[in-house]
Amino acid sequence: MTAVTAEELTERIHATGLRNQWYPVLPSGHVGNGEMKRVTRWNETWLLFRRPSGQLHMIADRCPHRSAPLSLGQHLGDRVACQYHGVQVDGTGTVVSVPGLPGCNLEGKQLVRSLPVQEHCGAVFAYWGDERHPEPPELVLPDRLADEGTAHFLNYAEWGAPWRFYIDNVLDPMHGAFLHGHSHSMAGGAKSARFRIRETERGFFFEKTDQVGVNFDWVEFARTGVDWVDLEIPYQPFAGPGGAFGIVGMVVPVTDTECAVFHWRTRKVQGWERDSWRFLYRMTLEERHHEVLEQDRVMLEGMPADGDVGENLYQHDLGVVRIRRFYRAEAARQAAALLG
């Protein structure tokens, strides 16, 4: 077998997601008590299964005996039995029983990869680490999601575009004035602007210097154990009570050319006003927000797979350049560490 080069490993990590951090993988409601769900993440297949008690596990969808998909097997409460030969694997990836040969030396061995999982704000988060970093860092939620005074709704979608296209799109606030220029929330403001990058301890802001509080005028990128973006869109009075409309976004690679996106739609509002806004959102605003996301999806899915190569960028693209350099450098660093 030919050894992988540093450049090849860098490309693989860059295409399928940085290691050693948390990612959202699926809305919690997609796996009910006593249920299991097969997903593809980071170009690999996984099985999520939830015990009747509610405890969730995430293991590789591959039986250690003959590599059959465990997702085709039987849910046994605290374990899954492979349909092929009945081998039983628990949530830690340990073989707990080989019914065809009791006492088999496979029993008691941890032979299936298991990922640490947590659940927050309606989503399942998993730690995607490499062999040198088996222990996850602390997962610190974005400010809006950690604030009990801020109401939020989770929107989940799967897009046929590389995960990096999603990040580039959010780090490009100017597209809001054009692609979303006829939406209920992004129709105002100038269609020309100047931008700057403002560094922070956890990431950076990319913001307009000549317009604030009118449209999609800034975005924050942060790393707090999980990578996320945050932005605000001012709302007109017809949108109900509360402060500015906030969006927290995260993305997880599915394959080299597909991703799953998570958007928490937020508003700082309490008491009866909170109930009023939540009702208004479900009845009218949610559909409008979905239409805006569809504009992004259609645009990104229409780009070629190498759409971020050979471009002609200008000042508005400083945020895109900044995030691309970071992810490329981090992928190279992780590759070098693994090969070193």
From TrEMBL:
Q: Does the keyword Metal-binding apply?
A: yes
InterPro entries from the UniProt entry = Cholesterol_7-desaturase, Rieske_2Fe-2S, Rieske_2Fe-2S_sf, VanA_C_cat
SUPFAM superfamilies recorded: Bet v1-like, ISP domain
Keywords per UniProt: 2Fe-2S, Iron, Iron-sulfur, Metal-binding, Oxidoreductase
Q: Which PROSITE patterns match?
A: RIESKE (PS51296)
Is-annotated flag, keyword Lipid biosynthesis?
no
One short Pfam name that applies is: VanA_C
Gene3D superfamilies under this entry?
Naphthalene 1,2-dioxygenase Alpha Subunit, Chain A, domain 1 (3.90.380.10), Rieske [2Fe-2S] iron-sulphur domain (2.102.10.10)
Rieske domain location: 22-126
Give the source's domain of life in one word: Bacteria
The protein depicted here goes by the name: Rieske 2Fe-2S domain-containing protein
